[in-house]
Amino acid sequence: MIFFILKRLMQIVPVILGVTLVVFLIMQMVPGDSAVILAGEGASKETVEELREDLGLNKPLHEQYFSYIGNIFQGDLGHSLKNNQPVLEEIMIRLPITMELAFFSILITVVLGLIAGIISAVKPYSFSDIGVMLVALLGISLPSFWLGLLLMYIFSIKLQWLPVAGWDSMAHIVLPAITLGAGGAAIVARMTRSSMLEVVGQDYIRTARAKGLKEHVIIYKHALRNALIPVITVVGLQFGGLLGGTVLVESVFAINGLGRMIVDSIRTRDIPMVQGGVLVASLVFVFVNLLVDTLYRVFNKRIDLN
Amino acid sequence: MSNDVVLEVKNLKTHFISSKGIAKAVDGVDFVLRKGETLGIVGESGCGKSMTSLSILRLIPSPPGKIVDGEVLLNGKNLVTMPNAELRKIRGNRISMIFQEPMTSLNPVIPVGEQIAEALRLHQGLSKKAAWAKSVEMIGLVGIPSPEKRAKQEPFQLSGGMRQRVMIAMALACTPEVLIADEPTTALDVTIQAQILEIMKDLQRKIGMGIIFITHDLGVVAEMCDQVAVMYAGQIVEHQNTAELFKNPLHPYTQGLIGSLPKLYEDQDELQIIEGTVPSPYDYPEGCRFAERCPFARSICSEKQPDLIQYDEESKVRCWKYTNEWQVSLTKELVTT
Question: Is B256 helix (H, G, I), strand (E, B) or coil?
Answer without folding.
Answer: helix
